[in-house]
Structures are given as structure tokens and as C-alpha cells.
Design a protein that fits this description.
With about 425 residues, the chain is an alpha/beta fold. Helices cover about 45% and strands about 15% of the residues.
């Protein structure tokens, strides 16, 4: 059960938020002021913090700064009845995950908390983005990304899930002249189409049922900064057309709005799908593809940079392990033999599990729970001539077998959205294959 900390000096609001989140299955701890919250954060880890902005002694923005010192990767959602675009951008620049303007609906609250606690690949813990690698191909990629950062040109990052696409996007932002402004990430696969439109472009009060107040979209929040459109291949054609207009005209239309709003935003798009193939299949607009694919970057999967595996494992050990913990050499050797279909994200999960469950300071191979003789965990056999599609299909088949057909669990293990997994299975069914 995911644990949340809710902070608000208004008791009635505190109870309402607590009950709403508990009904959604979250474990909720409450604090009535910022100082109380800091005390709880010193003694416990929470998957997210939801805090009011206007509080005595320690405001929500001041609490945000404290949280970023105590637990840099914890998402913080700010609640305000006095929200402005300037306040929102300030909060995002200081590291807030998102904000909600009062009054907000239970659906709006649970949607943003669901997104915040869904998890992501390693988040940077400071203003500089740290990418751990000694691989020549990765170093060449970082050099290209650094050069791309010097312009406002659109970048398209194509790579398998779990390779660190968002980390590359953050690296580009941190190397650019926009680094002092907001970096805003939007997962295009995580929201229903109608909500994604409002999330990206905002809406006016009363634009649709449940729109209780005006909402500033992510493009406006990223003004003079960078917006990451994650899993852009999942965006439906209607929104693709609207996005194309934003790229061409540099202006957005809020849902229910009467006039366009100018925006100055650097766009980085990422995908784990082959957009060129989607264009050929009629699922992605060709004109939008060429607008996005000005500077293409492809991240190599972890299995193609084996020498990075012990480097990353030791990095995760230093970051997440207890004092004195380390990996035995035979453990690092075993890690290098595994195929890592989930890439760096899977490696992080495996090492964190081993560090948490091992009773000894030196992590042995048995602590990894990786059985290379087990067909559900062994590397997929790669032979000359086998296509990437066949490898992908086999990885999905093995993962579904291990999860006993639980698609939600399988999608999480694969590092893709449930929608992406469903699309793949539908594609296989249409080809006459049942996994």
C-alpha cells in the first residue's frame, strides 16, 4: 500500500482529503502544519506529499524546500486557493510535481496522486542530472544531447522502456539556457484522451462537467522552459493535430477558451515505439513526426552495454543501500549474464530488492532472486536473423506467464503503460497469435 503524507492547517480540508485518498486504497498520514510534517518526514518515507501552500510558520513552498533536502525523489503536490501561473511555475522550478487549485474534485486529486506515485526511473537529486555510464555509445549520445541543448530544436528520443529516456530529457534541459526555468513532464499514455487534452492545454472553468475552476495546462506551466511529452506514440490523432499547431504557431488553446495563448516552450518527445512504423500504419501523423524528429536520439538498451551493469549496480548500492553494503564480485558477474528486458529500471528494482532483503553486508548471488535456468527469468535466446519484434513478443509472453496473465502487473514489470500492452496483444490477436 502506497503511503502518503497530507499537510493542511484546515482540519475540515485535511479530513476530506484523507478520506478521499483512503477510499482509493492509499495509506494516509496527516500533519496540521509544516513543522509537524518535517518531523514525520525525518522518520518515515512517503511515496508522495500533498500540502497546502498557505500555512502559518512554515508555508507549503518552504516545506517543499525542506522535502527536497530530506527526500529529493519524493513527489510533492501543492494545494492552493490563491493559485496563479507565476506561483505554479515557481513551485515547479523548485521541484514540485504538480499543483491543484481549490476547489478541486476528488477525481482531480486522485488522478494527480495516482500519476505522482506511479514511479519513474532514477530522478536527479540536484540541479545537475547525473547519468552513470562508461559505454562509448552512451557517451556519444550524451555529447549529441549536450550539443542539441544549445538550440531550441525539438528532440525525439526513441528507446526501449526503462532505458532512461526522461533522464536524457532532463539532461538536455539542464545543459540548455532554459535550465533556470521549469521542466514539465507529461506521460501521454497515463491519462484518458479527454483528460490528456486538459492536462496539456488547460481548461476554463465550466468547460466540461467537473471543471470547477480554471486549470493552467502543462504547456503554459513550461513557458520559457522545457516540456517532455513522454510516450508520444500513444497520443490519439485528434490531439496530434492540436500538438502540431502548437509546434507551428507557438500558441495553445485552452479547452473552452475564447482566444489562444502564446507559449515559449522547448519540446522533447520520447517513445518506446517506432514512430516511423506508426506513420506507415496510419496511426501517427507524418507531418507531426517530421516536426518532432528534428534531432533524433536513440538510447542503447542495457543488454548492449554490459560493462555499465556493475557500474550502475554499485551506484544503486551507494544510493539505496545501508552503510557497509556492497556486491560480491560473483554477484556482479551474475548481473552481467542476465538479459534485462526491463533495462536500467529493472536493474534498479532488482538491486534495491537485494539491498533491502539481504541479511549480510555483502550481497551474494542468492540475494538477487535471479535464476538463469528458470524460463520465466532467463535471457531470451537471440539468434542471427531473429527480428526485434519476435524478441519483443517473447519478452511479453514470458512476462505474462510469470504474472499468471495479470496484465497490469505485466505492464509494470515491462515498464510500459497498460494501454501499450493491450495494443500489443490486440496486434498479436489480429495476426492470429494468442500469447
Amino acid at each position: 500500500m502506497k503511503e502518503l503524507l497530507v499537510v493542511d492547517d484546515e482540519q475540515q480540508m485535511l479530513v476530506a482529503i484523507e478520506e478521499t485518498l483512503k477510499r482509493k486504497g492509499f495509506s494516509v498520514t496527516t500533519a496540521t502544519n509544516g513543522m509537524d510534517a518535517v518531523g514525520k518526514l525525518r522518520n518515515h518515507f512517503y511515496q508522495a506529499v500533498i500540502t497546502d501552500v498557505r500555512m502559518p510558520e512554515l508555508s507549503g513552498l518552504d516545506l517543499l524546500k525542506q522535502i527536497k533536502k530530506l527526500s529529493p525523489s519524493t513527489p510533492v503536490i501543492l494545494l492552493t486557493g490563491h493559485g496563479t501561473v507565476t506561483d505554479a511555475v515557481t513551485a515547479l522550478k523548485q521541484g514540485a510535481y504538480d499543483y491543484l487549485m481549490k476547489p478541486f474534485s476528488a477525481r482531480e486529486l486522485t488522478d494527480v496522486v495516482d500519476k505522482a506515485t506511479r514511479g519513474s526511473l532514477e530522478e536527479p537529486t540536484s540541479g545537475d542530472v547525473e547519468i552513470v555510464t562508461n559505454d562509448p555509445a552512451m557517451r556519444q549520445l550524451l555529447e549529441m544531447a549536450s550539443q542539441a541543448a544549445q538550440s531550441d530544436t525539438t528532440v525525439l528520443v526513441e528507446a526501449e522502456s526503462g532505458t532512461g529516456k526522461e533522464l536524457i530529457a532532463r539532461f538536455i534541459h539542464s545543459c540548455s539556457s532554459r535550465r533556470e526555468n521549469a521542466f514539465v513532464a507529461v506521460n501521454c499514455a497515463a491519462l484518458p484522451d479527454e483528460l490528456l487534452e486538459s492536462e496539456l492545454f488547460g481548461h476554463e472553468k465550466g468547460a466540461f462537467t467537473g471543471a470547477l475552476s480554471r486549470k493552467i495546462g502543462k504547456f503554459e506551466l513550461a513557458h520559457r522552459g522545457t516540456i517532455l511529452l513522454d510516450e508520444i506514440g500513444e497520443m490519439v490523432p485528434r490531439l496530434q493535430a492540436k500538438l502540431l499547431r502548437v509546434l507551428q504557431e507557438k500558441e495553445i488553446d485552452r479547452v473552452g477558451g475564447l482566444s489562444p495563448t502564446r507559449v515559449d516552450v522547448r519540446v522533447i518527445a520520447t517513445t518506446n515505439r517506432n514512430l516511423k512504423e506508426l506513420v506507415n500504419e496510419g496511426q501517427f501523423r507524418e507531418d507531426l513526426y517530421y516536426r518532432l524528429n528534428v534531432i533524433p536520439l536513440t538510447i542503447p538498451p542495457l543488454r548492449e552495454r554490459k560493462k555499465d551493469i556493475p557500474l550502475l549496480a554499485n551506484h544503486f548500492c551507494n544510493r539505496f543501500g545501508r552503510e557497509g553494503q556492497s556486491f560480491a564480485q560473483e554477484t556482479l558477474d551474475l548481473l552481467q549474464k542476465y538479459h534485462w528486458p526491463g533495462n536500467v529500471r529493472e536493474l534498479e528494482n532488482v538491486t534495491r530488492r537485494a539491498l533491502a532483503l539481504s541479511r549480510n553486508p555483502v550481497i551474494s548471488p542468492g540475494d538477487l532472486f535471479l535464476n538463469l535456468d528458470d524460463p520465466t527469468q532467463a535471457s531470451i535466446e537471440v539468434k542471427a536473423g531473429i527480428s526485434l519484434k519476435e524478441i519483443e513478443k517473447e519478452v511479453i509472453r514470458v512476462t505474462l506467464r510469470e504474472t499468471e496473465g495479470n496484465r497490469t502487473h505485466a505492464a509494470r514489470m515491462l515498464g510500459v503503460s497498460l494501454r501499450t500492452l493491450r495494443n500489443k496483444l490486440r496486434e498479436y490477436r489480429e495476426q492470429g497469435e494468442i500469447l
